[in-house]
Amino acid sequence: MAKEYTVGGGSFLNNLGKIYMIYTGGFFGFVALLAVLEQLGMPNRWIGYGFVFLTIAVYALIGVLSRTSEVGEYYVAGRSVPAFYNGMATGADWMSGASFVGMAGTLFLLGYDGLAFVLGWTGGYVLVAVLIAPFLRKFGAYTVPDFFAERYGGSFARLLAVIVLISCSFTYVTAQIYATGIIASRFLDIDFTVAVYVGLLGILLCSMLGGMKAVTWTQVAQYIVLIVAYLLPVVILSAKKYGIPIPQLTYGQAIQDIGNLEQNMLAKGLADAKTLKPHIKPFTTYDPLNFFALIFCLMVGTASLPHILMRYFTTPSVREARSSVAWSLLFIFLLYFTAPAYAAFSKLEVYSTVVGRELDLLRPWIFTYGKLGLVKVCGADAISHEAVKAACAKIAQHPGVVRLQDLSINTDVIVLSTPEIAGMPYVIAGLVAAGGLAAALSTADGLLLAIANALSHDIYYKMISPNASTKTRLIVARILLLVVAVIAAYTASTKPADILSMVAWAFSLAAAGIFPALALGVWWKRANTPGAVLGMILGFGVTLYYLVGTRYFAVSFYEMWSFLATAKPEAVAKFAELKAAFAAAAPEGKAAAWTALDKHAQGIASWYGVKNISAALFGLPVGFLTIILVSLMTPAPSRKVQDMVDATRRPSGELIMSEKGSGMVGGH
Amino acid sequence: MQPVNYERHWSRTSALMWIMLILWAIFSFFIHMFVDTLNSIVILGFPLGFYMAAQGSLLAFVIMLFIFAKRQDTIDRQEGVAEE
Q1: Where are the domains of chain B?
Q2: Model confidence band, residue A637 (pLDDT cutoffs 50, 70, 90)
Q3: Radius of gyration over alpha carbons of chain A, in Å?
Q4: Which run of H or of E encompasses A470?
Q5: Given pLDDT bands bounded at 50, 70 and 90, which one contains residue B1?
């Protein structure tokens, strides 16, 4: 039977362990082969091609072999993904290109304060496991908005959920495709726009034919590539430097050395106290309020992002949904607890071999990344020794050696440059690129599917054409996936700075728009439709208002809310000064004066000093309070809805929503 | 097959939920409020306050979730609402 040979079919599911072991072995073999070929003189460029094309080809092959014509397989992978593998798929779904490439760099720059991201992006899974995932699994929904429609009576709640879903997922997916383009263009040496469409092709081949089923099995494959690529360089580095191949243990030594070097640099005048943020010192970038607010918003956001929640629809049982969250977190943990080791090793390298070094003696990796515009010395791209010397000569009383304040390193460099810094062969750099690509592609797959499914299942099937046949539904689902993917890729190809900076908004938007109604929907039977609908609108609205207001309308936001701002008197005085300068500016100087005013206002426009990335700190309480108060003032939900909530809470029994006649496998 | 007791199932499930949320709050927020004090303890080069945010809390989350999955499953079985 043809089914025997398809990925995701019976014989495939029975041999998962064997299949992925062979795959992992094959991947190591491929890396070893390229390493040998490199020694035999294969040019670096070909190694880059090998990694990018071969890995994309394997993902695409899995995608094509998992093609399906069943609705249940397309939307929820036939609910047949074992907890362990769903954990890996969620890990890949979760860890974006930015996590892979940029996380360690953030920790490098921010030191302790950067750990807010590490904590926020892991601890949220506790909320997923305890409050949400098992109940959504029992519910039997295809999409997150399905739950809202069923629980809160109808299309309006569904529509709101779809709006929140799209607004938090679209900027996010654009950033993933952008990351794919950056990595592919760097390692294939092709134009960025072309690289974006190469990435798009990879994404579509993985997801279009098989939907969730295909995305699941490619994500498992992508997780393996990304975790090997992340761990291997730093394990080698740790073994080389400290004799123990466990970087997560040995970087304690690096932290001690960094502390000593920091003292040294200050004593020798190689760093000023203003630029130097001691690595382990807390609250140098965020004050405690913002540090904890950020952790909180990232965690609740994690528990609300639809592309993550929908992964738990695919397990065979409620029990497996729970243990699957635990596996997910374990697989995510492996990367996040390694990121601080990368940061520490790189910082040690930079502090001991770059800072204090004569400009003539700078090491070659500085220029490799300087040419890409990612490393600046004395304010200019570090292209060559001459360029660096020329730039530093312009600075008054420059001592001729690199000082900490002369150096500016893009966060992406930390992970990408580790193989070179440690003197590893180019094949390891290629491996890291393949890992970054896997991380970006897998997250893009999950997000695209979340958006396209909301459009095809929630909007088209549930709201526009409920009588559509299975065949039509799957055709519509695929067309919408293609359309969304092309729009996202086109947006990414224009390198939209605004959209890329909005990615951080996704967590606050998802948290405020989805979490209160979702959590109360399961845990508080009394929550009713008017409460949930108003709560979603107000919670999401307040968050969006805060985000947009403090970022794009900072001047008027500050003026309206100055009594809640926590700006220092000097900053307030400067605002008044800049405002007067703007009013007095001649017509040709208006734009520049406004830019200065707006930039200053962005720094002080706030409620109680909360940074805009933590906007859900306001939206969440508003959402919860609205749902509770409005629900208590209006009649309780019907008996039927309350019984449904009861059934959601019990693992046993039938799924609450079930697909009529599509061969769905129920909870067994 | 255990006798089914829906009410006791939900009250035990809720109790477990609150325990988990308290542990979550401790490892997410509470413990990091003492980062400066903890940093005076250094193990293998790691100041303890830094270590808790970089590894300790993360490890606690992972362990918590495996125990939670097992514990909730036991409750489901004992109250007769487990699957199968």
Answers
A1: 6-78
A2: very high
A3: 26
A4: helix A470-493
A5: low
